[in-house]
Give the backbone structure.
Amino acid sequence: MKVVLIVLDSVGIGAAPDAAAYGDAGSATLPHCAAAAGGLRLPTFQQLGLGNIPALLPGGKALAGVPPVATPLASFGAMQEVSDGKDTITGHWELAGLQIHPPFHLFPPDHPSFPPDLVAAFERRTGRGIIGNKAASGTAIIAELGAEHLRTGAWIAYTSADSVFQLAAHNDVLPLPELYRGCEIARELCDPLKVGRVIARPFTGAPGAFTRTEDRRDYAYRPEEPTVLERLTGAGVPVYAVGKIEDIYAHRGLTESVHTGHNTASQEQVVRFFREQPAGLIFANFIDFDMLYGHRRDARGFAAALEQTDGFLRDFLSLLTPDDALIITADHGNDPTFRGTDHTREFVPLLAYRPGRAGGSLGVRRGFFDVAQTLAALFGLPPLPRGTAFWRA
C-alpha cells in the first residue's frame, strides 16, 4: 500500500474557535484568497470536495469559484488544532500524533528579543557578533541590515511570532557550511529554552536588490516522544519525505528524504517516489503558500499557487490505484489579507481520497493527530495515544 500525505503549508480554511486568543479572530485563508482573486479556479480540488468543507464550520465562509459538489470524489472535513501554538512545528507534530503543551518558547518581539546569555554564548562560539535581535519579516530585515552585515560580517539574527531563532547571512560573507554550522550551534543553545526551530536564511545580491535563496534549512527541537513516522519505520514501513519534512522532524523516522525549495520541485519528487516505491508513506510539504505568499501578504500569488497545485493533482490522481490513498491537509493558516505578516490560528481542510471509494463527510475533527491515527490503522500499527482514525485497513 502507498499513502501520500500532502501538507499545503499555511492553507487554513477559517478562524478556529480559539483564534481570538491568538489575535486571529476573523482570519480565513482560503475564503479570503478566493475573494481577493475574484474566485478560484480549482476544478480538481472542487471534485475532491474542497468546496463542501465550509458548510461544516461554525460561520464557515464559502469559497468563491469552488462551490460544493453533490458527489465528491474524496471524503472531506476540517480539523481543529488542540496544541498550543500556530507554527509549522506544532502543526506538523500534531499531524504526526503529538500534542504540544506547554507551547514552545516565544521570544519577545522588541529589541532585544534574545536573552543576553544566549547572545553571548552564540557570539563566543561563532566568533561573530549579531545584529537585529528583534522580531521582523525576513525580507524586511535583510533589506534593513544587509549592508551592515556585508560591512561587518555580523549575523543577522531575528525572530517572529513563532518560536524561532533565525539567522540570515549573505553567501559572500558566510558560505552555506558556516551558516549551517552557526545554526547547529544555535540549536544546541536554544534547546534548554524549548525553541521550536532555528532557521538558516541565506541570501545573495547587492544592497537594494537582496534575494533569499532556496537553501533555507530548519533545525527543529527534537520530539519528546515517538511520532507516527518513527513508529512506521520501526515497524518496517518505509517513509519518504519531500520538502522541509526532514527538518521539521529532525531527520527522525525517515527512510529517505529529498529537501526541496518550492512547490514544483516537491511535486516532482512526490511523483518520483510514487512511481519508484512499491509501498510506504510519501509525506510532502508544499511550502510556497506560506513562504512566498502568506507571509508576504500576496493573496493573488497565493491563489495562483493553489491553481498550479490543482493542475498537479489533476494529473497525479490518475496514478493512484484502489490500493493507494491520498490525504491532503494543512498545518495552520496564513491569511494573506489579514493584518501583520504571521501565521493565523485556523481550522485546516481535510481531503481523504481512495480510488473507487465514495466520498463523504468526515466532520470537524478535534486534533490534527487523527491523521497519524489513520496512518497507523492503514499500515497495521497498534493504536496511537491520541486521535481517531477516519480510515482503517
